[in-house]
Amino acid sequence: MNIQKRTREQIVQRVAQDIPTGSFVNLGIGLPTRVAGYLKPEQEVILHSENGVLGFTALGADEQPDNDLINAGKELVSMLEGGSFMNSADSFDIMRGGHLDICIMGAFQVAINGDLANWHTGASDAVPAVGGAMDLAVGARCVYVCMEHVTKNGEAKIVDELTYPITGKHCVNRIYTDLCVIELKDNQAFVLEMVDGLSFDELRQQTGCKLIDARQVA
């Protein structure tokens, strides 16, 4: 059977399914911002962006854009009824003060203990630009990561220990990749689900840490 890897759009769609109703959620720059397009109105999710926007949603296909209304990734968005704007200091108070239920971010690496590396690869030509990632990593009650399971060179991105500069320690709760969903808890990695056509042994070969098949745990 051929492995049915999830596309990037399917990854964020899967993340959106796990966001509890009424959650306050920050979407990190890049792939995570696409989660907004898959949230259902009945989920009543309140989205926050570090540039000072609270209560926004994805811009509709037929909606007239406002060029001044953007998220932290400078992507055009739309406002829900009751949405608000604030200065950066107030926005970072929300991030640092424990007011966000979930933050969804991309990553270069995630360690089995929940350590996150998502702002710098350590390369000499890389431009340091951590932004608000550190504040979100330690301030949100729960951190979800969405990313491809391995690098373009086939190297594992879920590892025993980070080799890239750290963003936050012991902060990642769940990882969504093109191959599986993994829950991190008590320095262990529990596989909650895998894509069709992929065996557990094949998944372990593409992962840099020990995995536990939660589907087999009573």
Describe this structure in words.
With 218 residues, the protein is of the alpha/beta class. The protein has one domain (8-59, 66-216): Glutaconate Coenzyme A-transferase (3-Layer(aba) Sandwich). Helices cover 15% and strands 27% of the residues. It contains four helices and 13 strands. It has helices at 8-17, 88-96, 133-139, 200-205; strands at 24-27, 46-49, 53-58, 77-85, 102-105, 109-111, 116-117, 142-146, 158-159, 172-176, 180-185, 188-194, 212-213. The longest helix is centred in the first third of the chain and has 10 residues, at 8-17. The chain starts with 7 loop residues before the first helix and ends in a 5-residue tail after the last strand.
Task: Walk me through the topology.
Blueprint: H1 8-17, E1 24-27, E2 46-49, E3 53-58, E4 77-85, H2 88-96, E5 102-105, E6 109-111, E7 116-117, H3 133-139, E8 142-146, E9 158-159, E10 172-176, E11 180-185, E12 188-194, H4 200-205, E13 212-213
Parallel strand pairs: 1-2, 1-5, 5-8, 6-9, 8-10, 12-13
Antiparallel strand pairs: 2-3, 3-4, 6-7, 10-11, 11-12
Q: Which sequence of SSEs, written as H and E, runs from N to C? A: HEEEEHEEEHEEEEEHE
What's the CATH superfamily, by name?
A: Glutaconate Coenzyme A-transferase
- The CATH architecture: 3-Layer(aba) Sandwich
Return the average pLDDT rounded to an integer. 93
Instruction: Give the CA-based shape.
Output: globular
Largest beta sheet: what is the strand line-up? 4-3-2-1-5-8-10-11-12-13
Which parts are unreliable, with pLDDT below 50 for 5 consecutive residues or more? Answer: none
Number of helices: 4
CATH class: Alpha Beta
- Which band does the percent of strand residues land in? 25-35%
